[in-house]
Structures are given as structure tokens and as C-alpha cells.
Amino acid sequence: MYKEIELPLVPIIKKAEDHGILLDVSELKKLSIKYHEKLTALEKKIWDLAGQEFNINSHKQLGEILFDKLNLTAKGLKKTAGGARSTRESELLKMKEGNPIIEELLSYREIQKLLSTYIDTLPELVDKEGRLHTHLNQTGTTTGRMSSSEPNLQNIPASGDIAKEIRKTFIAPQGFIIAAFDYSQIEMRVLAWLSKDKNLEEIFIKGEDVHSAVASRVFGVAEKDVTKEMRRKAKVINFGIVYGMGVSALQKNLGGTREEAQQFYDNYFIQFPKIKEYFEKLKNDARKNGFVVTRFARRRYFPMINSKLPFIRAESERMAVNAVLQGTAADIIKKGVN
After folding, report:
1. For the residues 301-320, what does the mean pLDDT come to?
2. Is the CB of residue 235 less than 8 Å from the CB of residue 263?
3. C-alpha span between 225 and 296 (Å, rounded)
């Protein structure tokens, strides 16, 4: 792994970092003016809905407006470590139906974050040629995936109108184009390869859509009869399986009852029995050796996998499964770059 995957990657990463990527700074400055104006308009709208002016960025003042003046409440609202009522996004979402001010607050925070993280910040980081240089961290994650920092260019938002406008400011010099390359469903393919599950292998060999094909098998309908909702649920569990998702997490992501999630989970492993066997083997190997290895011998250690505390043990087991699948995929991508 070190000699054939990581070492050959070093000069490629160095070249990419030094070259950088061209940024349309003038377009970003236009976006800055546009979205600062929208932010000001949202601020006034929030003040109108609150019935007074206040510092929207002060969690204390915002809490007083929402909970004391507007009397908003929702089941299961969390508090901060200091005991104050939380105004985090996850808590605001619980009150979304209670007052139109919540929708405006969420929009305000989204625009503010995109301004401070990208629109106003990135132009300050370019070199004299207008190029942005990130640090590509070869060992930036525990699974072998690369990470990016100062600035993080692997985390540029993708959905929403503002995100699309930000992405358009990453440009190619005249005479060149920007191309995107992707390994289709790589982690699901790795799962089929390593588990040797015939049903999952067959889906890829036939070139079927993996989410529709899984939905067809789990719901017991012909693939032509798979609905969008069935495919969505199959997609949730496919990615959930790769990341070691249990029944509780599955229920949260699917919606519905725990019984439905349990049935869906059980049906999945009935249809793909070798996957369950493979996962159990990975967990047993981790318990026995204290580590797991990817297909290309990358190791990840789990010192707490034999903990007496069930939740710590379960978390280590989940990460052990994910480390092999995600790590093998990362190794393949690094080999592809080489």
C-alpha cells in the first residue's frame, strides 16, 4: 500500500496543489453584493415578524424572542451545555411549523454561512494569477480518503441556487475545460466484490440501477413497478449498510415506524445473505485482531472493540465495517490517479 499506492501519489498531489484552480473573483464580488443585500432584507423581515429589532446572531437574544416573546415550543427541544435553550438549526427545524420567522431564520443562517465561508473569503485567498491553492491531505481521514484544507475544496456546497452560483466561479483558463470524473456506486461495487454476494454481483453485471434493483428484491415487486418512494428507501438502506447503519438510524432516515424499519432491514439481508455473513466476519476479525484491513492492506485499529460498554462496542463494529468498504474504495481511487 505504501510503495504502490501512497508514494506514487505524492508528486501528483504536489503538482495539483502548486497548480491550483482558477477563480472568477469578479463574479464572487458581484455575488457578495447581491447576497449581502438579501441578508439585510431578511434581517428586516425577521425584525418585523419578531415585532422588534435584535441581534439575530446572539443566541441569547434570539432565544428570548422565540421562547419568551413568541412563545414557540416543540417536543424534545434540547438545551446547550450551559442549560440555555438551544437555537441550533436542528432545534429550529423542530419548530418550523410554529411560526414563519423560523423559515426566515434558516434562510438567513444559510446565506450568512455561504458568505462567510466562500463568497467573501475565497477571493482573499487567491494568488496574483487568481488561482486558489488548497492543501490535499493524503492521510486526512482514518479510512484512507483524502481531505482538503485551507481552504476545504471538497466541501463546496452542491445543492441550492446559491451553491450553484458559487460553483460556477471555479473556472478553467481559456482553451481548457473543467472535467469531473466519478466512479459509479464505487462503495456498493466494493461491497459486492468483497462479500461475493451473488444477488448484488448480478445487479452490477447486468448494469441495472442498484437502488431500483434492490427495491425490487426487498419489496418483492418487478423492477418496472418500483415507485420513486421505494427507490428512495432502497437508496437510504444501501448507503446505510455501507456506513454500518442500525435499525434506529434507519428508521430516522426512512421515516415511519421502528417495526417497518426492522422489517426492511431484515428483508435486505434475506435478499443479500452473503453481505450479513461478510459483516459478521469483519466484526469477528476486528474483535480478534484489534484491527481490520482493506483489500489493499490498509489497516485501521479499534482499541475499544471489546469494550464492556455495549454502545462503544457497537460503534467500533460499525466503524470496522465502514473502514474496509470506504477504505478499499479510497485505495482504488488513489490507484486510479496513479
Report:
1. 94
2. no
3. 40
Pull the grid cell for residue 51.
415585532
Q: Judge contact between 240 and 253, C-beta under 8 A.
A: yes
Quote the cell numbers at residue 45. Answer: 423581515
Do both 322 and 202 map to the same domain? yes
Using one digit for the tens of pLDDT, what is the confidence trace for 245-289?
A: 788 888 888 888 888 888 888 888 999 999 999 999 999 999 999
Q: Whole-prediction pTM value?
A: 0.83
Regarding beta strands 147-149 and 170-171, do their DSSP bridges make them parallel or antiparallel, or are they unpaired? unpaired
In a domain, 137, yes or no: no
* Distance of alpha carbon 258 from alpha carbon 249, whole angstroms: 10
The per-residue pLDDT for 83 is 66
Model pLDDT for residues 110-154, shown as the tens digit of each residue: 999 999 999 999 999 999 999 999 999 998 888 899 999 999 999
- In the DSSP assignment, the letter for residue 175 is T
Overall average pLDDT of the 3-13 stretch: 94
Within a domain: 284: yes
Report yes or no: 56 and 43 within 8 Å, Cβ to Cβ: yes
Looking at the structure, do residues 326 and 216 belong to the same domain, yes or no?
A: yes
Based on the structure, what is the number of domains in the chain? 2
Q: What is the pLDDT of residue 260?
A: 85
Query: Do 59 and 99 reside in the same domain of the chain?
Result: yes
Residue 70: CATH number of its domain? 1.20.1060.10
Domain-located, residue 8? no
Neighbour order of strands in the sheet with 21-23: 131-132, 21-23, 170-171
How big is the chain by its Cα radius of gyration, in Å? Answer: 24
Q: What is the mean pLDDT of residues 166-182?
A: 93
As beta bridge partners, residue 247 has none
The verdict on residue 319 lying in a domain is: yes
More confident residue, 172 or 75: 172
Do 191 and 324 have their domain in common? yes
Check which CATH number belongs to the domain holding 270 and give it.
1.10.150.20
Q: Which domain holds residue 48?
A: 21-132+150-171
Q: How many degrees, rounded to 5, is the angle at CA 320 between CA 219 and CA 268?
A: 10
